[in-house]
Amino acid sequence: MRSYTKITLTTYIKQLRKYWKTSSLASISVVAGSAANLVAPLYYKKFFDIITIADTGSDSANALIAIIVTILIIHGISWVFWRIANFSASYFQTNSARDLASSCFSYIHKHSAKFFNNTFVGSLVKKVNRFAGGSMELGGMFLWDFLPLIVEFSFVFFVLFSRQALFGYIVLAWLACFIIINTIFVRFKSKYDIKQAELDSKGTAILADTITNHENVKLFNGFSREVAHHHDAATALGDMRRFRWNLDQYFESVQHILVILVEFLVFYYGIRFWQQGLMTAGDFVLFQSYLLLLFNRIYSLGHIMRRLFENMANAKEMAEILDMPHDIVDRKKATALAPKKGEVVFDRVGFNYHKTRRILKDFSLTIKGGQKIGLVGKSGAGKSTVVRLLLRTFDTTRGSIKVDGQKLSHVTLESLHDTMSFVPQDPILFHRTLKENIRYGKPNATDEQVVEVAKLAHCHEFIAGLEEQYNTLVGERGVKLSGGEDKELPLHALCCVILQFSY
């Protein structure tokens, strides 16, 4: 947990540095606004001292009016600083969350096929959203909770110790007890925060998996089983949420008792000091104002610390992925693939999916440029593996693969995939328009080129018969075009269109 917390915080801070100007402006404004709010009670003390001690003459009235005008100005200054802080925070927090989401998106997509084969897509979506949202949550906690808390505690303790040191010691002892109890509590509770995040991801993964395979759920009579499976996951998550909720209530009960006790002690000794002429009515107003301020801050401090640990727990799963090195990466000084004749050579290639599962051993094959070949073999013999190794979605365990004498391991992945195209066995299209799907291999293609290649692939006739033609949304994986139509769209042909446009 500690290492992933470090990764999470380091990643957040790195993103925050991009917006250091607006984040600094927001922080300074919060400090100034908090300080202004703390000065106002000092004038309230003067106000009530004058009311209780002075007469009702014009001089006293003028003094009171001057005080309330000063308080109005102080609140006006505070209002300006808080508005600056809010607008500055809205800029850097939303932008940093956007950048984090983009970074997570980019990092995830650079993982190998092995990573995606072992990970639920639905849980990945949840992890990215929680990680990016956590940056806004933590930024908000720092700005609106921790910074004002530091300013207010420093100022209030200074006033308490300078006027009645006993009050300062009472509140300080209370704060120390609270922090110790709260630290023990959140450390105890953090393992349950992590467990809840894991259960939440599990439930999301089940939901995404069954929705993706909704047709199989119906056709193979799995509805009742899947409902029960999801219900079990939702029940486990609900039980954990209730358990954590009750833990919070136990802690808040202890916290509330401490608040009541401290307030009683301050007023008890305040009465004693008043009897000795050491406190005025204004002092009572001042101390009560500051105590209420501290109580609200301390009361929320427990929530803040729990939210902090919950965010760290929610971000842990994504931090694990960010800490996971990519299996397939460009080597240092990798060069761009420069194909000439298109000759492909497999030289004594070996490949294992696992240590105990060998797929290829000393596999050698030469494919001349322009030559068409077919790989024949029983299921599991390695036909698809050969293609995947050529596309470098997996790396060879032994041996090498060359294109026109250039080792694939020595060229950049981007140049390799820019040179080669692949028509998968199961055509999968983006949930975008037909035009966008056809253009995917060549984003700068004109509309005329799109229509031309569609005609060559015998897709145009079908597309022209659709109501929105090339602007038709295909649905996830092209499902809207493969069923319920009088004439099916040749999806492999459409993939061939994308293939052609990738050159």
Characterization of the model:
The protein has a 4-stranded antiparallel β-sheet with strand order 2-1-3-4, covered by helices on one side. The model is unreliable at 483-487 (pLDDT under 50). It is built from 16 helices and 4 strands. The protein has 503 residues and is mainly α. The longest helix is centred in the middle third of the chain and has 53 residues, at 223-275. Helix 1 (2-17) packs across helix 9 (281-323). Helices cover 70% and strands 6% of the residues. It folds into 3 domains: 2-323, ABC transporter transmembrane region fold; 344-419, P-loop containing nucleotide triphosphate hydrolases (Rossmann fold, 3-Layer(aba) Sandwich), CATH 3.40.50.300; 434-501, no CATH class.
Short description:
The protein has 503 residues and is mostly helical. Helices cover 70% and strands 6% of the residues.
Largest sheet: 4 strands, antiparallel
Binned strand content? 5-15%
Please work out how many helical segments DSSP would assign: 16
Helix content: 55-70%
Strand/helix succession: HHHHHHHHHEEHEEHHHHHH
CATH class wording of the largest domain: Mainly Alpha
Unreliable stretches (pLDDT < 50, length at least 5) are: 483-487
Overall morphology: elongated
CATH superfamily of the largest domain: ABC transporter type 1, transmembrane domain
Mean pLDDT: 77
The strand order across the widest sheet is: 2-1-3-4
The span between the termini is: 47 Å
Could you say what the CATH topology of the largest domain is called?
ABC transporter transmembrane region fold
SS content category: mainly alpha
The strand count comes to: 4
**Rg for CA atoms:** 33 Å
**Any guess at the CATH architecture of the largest domain?**
Up-down Bundle
How many structural domains can be distinguished in the coordinates?
Answer: 3
